[in-house]
Amino acid sequence: xSLEQWSSLAQIVGSVGVIVSLIFVGQQIRRNTGAxxxxxxxxTMAQWTVIRMAIASDRDMAELMTAGLNGERAMDAxxxxxxxxxxxxxxxxxxxxxxxxQRGIFPKGTFxxxxxxxxxxxLRTVRGxxx
Length: 131
Prior knowledge:
Radius of gyration: 27 Å
Low-confidence stretches: none
Order of helices and strands: HHHHH
Structural class: mainly alpha
Number of strands: 0
Helix content: over 70%
Oligomer: single chain
Shape: rod-shaped
């Protein structure tokens, strides 16, 4: 084999190596993107779990959210602040789902099917609407 033929063979082998490495890098990026999306899902679920557990594990908070939102009981300044903070947490967690849906991290329609109706329900209550 002549030097020119060896050179051509080396270029072919090098080109194949570049293609194989690009395929490998593409697969790694896809896996990494999937892992990041799972982390975003887990982070979102953790935010909502804090809110759900605050209501589920504390009867006083559950009563504040139900009777307080519907205007069924008088609220002092401390209860009003607590209710506003829970509304703010709900809004903030809802925003994260909306924003992650807009960025394509969550499937299209996730906000509209899950959080949108929940948020709409909160904001249609007597005190939710006033807030």
